[in-house]
Amino acid sequence: MSAFIELLRANQDALRQQYNLNNDMRRAIHALLRCQTEQQGSSKWQCRHCPHQEVTPLSCGHRFCPQCQQRTASQWLWRQQSKLLPTTYFMVTFTLPYELRPLAASHPRHLYPLMFKVSAQILKDFAAKQNQGELGFTSVLHTHSRQRNLHPHLHILVAGGRYDASKKHWYKGKKDYLFNAFALANVWRARMLDAINQHPSLSLTNHIPAKWIVDCRAVGEGLPTLKYLSRYLYRGVLPDKDIINITKDNVTFRYRDGQTNHWKQRTLPTLKFLMLMLQHVLPKGLQRARDYGFLRGNAKGLLHQIQCLLLPLLQLLLGVEPPSQPTRTCPCCQHSMQCIGISRPR
């Protein structure tokens, strides 16, 4: 059982009394406490070769759960890997400034979709100025810093090239330059502030920084970056292996410092630690990873045309191996087992 879930189970009553939990946090707690227990239900497995049977508790499937969604992350990585092109990729990171983080904490359902919409339109507009076709990129929302504080930002993996569908031509682009980061930051600030002012449920504070941060850098092939993004996409904010000490009143976890690349430790009171994690529960229905341009879901034919232009025919036909189906081996005869039924409590 996950150490975080056990902490949550032991302190759930005190947590509800001390903090005002929103509905998304309550749903997440309800799912995590039922995960892999009799309350969630079970699956029954039968060996294909001998009479041996096994009963396994079901997982909750919540995307915040630290012990679920491994297969979902593998499937997302496989789908994105099948879209990779033999070109240089760029990582563009749009960061929300510190002064707007309270707004993200109180209105994530409204603010996070605005971040996706504004950042995507900025990249499309910058590409349109160069009149070289359409971009393809994938946006992934991260809400935490290395210390697990609230730090909303978008990682956007951009293929270094553009496709002109009218000419059926691929423009390769430069290997070390996509767009000017300072220009992106200025437009990011102006458009986000305008979008927040026009939204009926959002309002700005009086102290807005004059400079916002956008990072734009080449990352080479796209696969290592996709693996990094998938690591936090469908699983909990903090792996159990990073929780290094639990006492009666405090929890200590480790994190890797971004400047020194060394491990550091942070100790918090138990309830404060739980709220530090729960503030990253996303609103129900919010899509955390989104594809745009020729990578979008309804542009498979367009992506296939680009792959035909860029990839060798044999590589295109072979494709990428999909993740294997979950299997279970019989402890008696070592043959494979099959699921013969799922039971859930009323």
| SSE order | HHEEHEHHEEEEHEHEEEHEHHE
Helix content: 25-40%
How many strand segments? 13
Quickly give the structural class: alpha+beta
Largest sheet: 5 strands, antiparallel
- Low-pLDDT segments: none
C-alpha-based Rg, rounded: 23 Å
Strand order of the largest sheet: 8-3-5-4-12
Overall body shape: globular
Mean pLDDT: 88
Distance between the termini: 24 Å
Number of helices: 10
Strand content: 15-25%
In words, what does this structure look like?
This protein is an alpha+beta fold. It has a domain at 83-237 and 280-299. It contains ten helices and 13 strands. The strands form four sheets. Strands 8-3-5-4-12 form a five-stranded antiparallel beta sheet, sandwiched between helices. Strands 2-1-13 form a three-stranded antiparallel beta sheet, with no helix packed on it. The longest helix is centred in the middle third of the chain and has 22 residues, at 108-129. It is globular. The model has no long low-confidence stretch (mean pLDDT 88).
Keywords:
single chain, 346 residues, alpha+beta, 5-stranded antiparallel sheet, 3-stranded antiparallel sheet, 35% helix, globular
Q: What's the short version?
A:
Pfam families: Y2_Tnp, Zn_Tnp_IS91. The chain has helices at 3-18, 23-34, 70-81, 101-106, 108-129, 181-198, 223-231, 270-278, 300-310, 313-318, and strands spanning 42-47, 53-57, 89-95, 136-144, 150-159, 162-164, 169-171, 214-220, 243-246, 250-256, 263-269, 289-293, 337-343.
